[in-house]
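Quiz preparation item.
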């Protein structure tokens, strides 16, 4: 019996949607779970499986969104703190160089006494 690979349901998020959601700056309150409608007797096991999968994916989506948001925010903050000393060194170097060049240019324009 040869089975074809199953295509995930359309409500399964792709990686770009998950990463895009995690990149938001402001935390967004999670949407409420869709009220579970009274489960009518499914006609077959596939319908029951799809319903269960949909509910599980909603829960996973909410949990992942918050956890990824927190993880990315923490990582951005750590990298920002790590950059501060290097940025200060670079700014100090550029300012010293600009002042030295300005003083040299000013001294070169003065007539000898």
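Solution:
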């Amino acid at each position: 019996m040869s089975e074809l690979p199953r295509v995930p349901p359309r409500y399964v998020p792709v990686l770009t949607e998950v990463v895009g959601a995690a990149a938001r700056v402001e935390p967004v309150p999670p949407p409420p779970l869709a009220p579970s409608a009274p489960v009518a007797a499914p006609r077959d096991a596939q319908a029951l499986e799809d319903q269960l999968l949909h509910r599980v994916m909603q829960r996973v989506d909410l949990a992942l969104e918050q956890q990824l948001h927190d993880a990315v925010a923490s990582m951005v903050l750590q990298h920002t703190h790590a950059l501060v000393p290097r940025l200060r060194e670079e700014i100090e170097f550029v300012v010293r160089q600009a002042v030295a060049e300005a003083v040299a240019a000013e001294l070169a324009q003065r007539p000898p006494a």
